[in-house]
Amino acid sequence: MRNVHIAGVGMTPFGKFPSRRFEELGLEAVQAAITDAGIPPGLIEAGYAGHARTGRVLGWESGVGQAVLWEAGITGIPIVGVANFCSSGGCAFREAWIAVAGGLVDCAIAIGIEQLSVRADKGQPFISDGIEIEGKLGFTPPAFFAMVAQRHMAAYGTTLEQMADVTVKNRRNAAANPRAQYRLPTTREEVLGSPTVAEPLTVMQCCPTGDGAAAAILVSDRLASNLPARKRIRVRAVQLVSGHYDPRRDITSFEATVRAAKQAYEQAGIGPEDVDVAEVHDCFSIAEIIHYEDLGFCQRGEGGRFVSRAGIDGKVAVNTSGGLLSKGHPLGATGLAQVAELAWQLRGEAGQRQVKEPKVGLAHVVGGFQAGDAASVSLILLST
Amino acid sequence: MARPYVAAYVDMDEGVRIFGQIADVEAAQLRIGARVQVDFRQTPGNAPEVVAYAFIPAPEEQA
Questions:
Q1: How many Å apart are CA A57 and CA B33, to the nearest integer?
Q2: ipTM value
Q3: A55 to each of A35, A52, A305, how far by Cα in Å?
Q4: Is the pTM of this model over 0.90?
Q5: Residue A352, pLDDT score
Q6: How close is the nearest chain A Cα to the Cα of B59, in Å?
Q7: Residue A12 DSSP SS3
Q8: Nearest 10 degrees: CA dihedral of A94, A54, A321, A33?
Q9: Which of A46, A62, A135, A191 has its Cα between 20 and 30 A from that of A356?
Q10: Does a cis peptide bond (omega within 30 degrees of 0) precede residue A200?
């Protein structure tokens, strides 16, 4: 496989923009990435668009990538939609990486896009494909993660305060991120006092739905050599796994995350102790806690205590963007928004939320449910 | 407003794990590891009206 570099990234603010067309959101992210890369759009040889719910919400199951790139004047090249639950953006990145690493092209763009604010069934549980029957019985993502939280509390003594502190930390980071959906700082008391969605998770421990787009441009060594050195970000590992769905698994861990991380660390020749900054799939407060453990940032059961070490100045700076909890979670856009945040951090361009000279970044998205387990986990490791 | 309901995973003695609601019990009385038995009824919570299985505390839990 050839070396792959990130030449440019871009994203829209995340939020609720029901009056905007999805093509506009995508175009904004694509143009930002092209400007950031400083390359002519004609250099882009392939496009991959991650989107999870455009079919159900907007009536666009296919053609999202073509519609967006057409607005940017990019036509004629292979363009493919990539749907894989909440990991769709990470998977679009992987397709672009495969194309460049495999030598098919020297430049590919990955786009992630979603517009959820316009959905007709607002207020109803938003459940994944494949769990319709469980959904009628009351299965929702908050219900699942509430069970994870109850189990983690019983097994390891994790506290309500530690879970609330995940939201407090991510909101503090989001306050310094002009693209985040929720930017008002909050307190442990406010988080715990907000209405309960699924005990013990209060609404401020559940990520919002929203709209947005993000993009990344990947290039080979040949094109990367034209970039200024400070701009160049190396793609060190890309891994995608599905679950094994052990019917009696320990729900306080996603085996698929453990496996994807192990494979990524082996591919990159770096370990969890080397990761300086990480964007992880904090769809709920407890999720970030179990990801710390599954990604190897701390020992099993120590996740609750690790929250205090995951701030901007911590052992690993986790979700400096605000994460899904505060930056927002327009499903297909999330994986590429994570990549954008890591690129800004590794280049020292993250402003008020900048981590001190990070060298290695990790992006992690979890998608869907299959037999009560994660259906898809995407893991990306980047370095300066 | 949908009424609150108790969501749970139940590990069956036969080895499988099933998602379902637990009925006829106050959430505060439940504990991880409690024994339950299956029952068939209108699901107690949530909007869709379906008749399905639910779990209720096993007799030994009520002693």
A1: 40
A2: 0.90
A3: 30, 8, 40
A4: yes
A5: 97
A6: 23
A7: coil
A8: 60
A9: A191
A10: yes
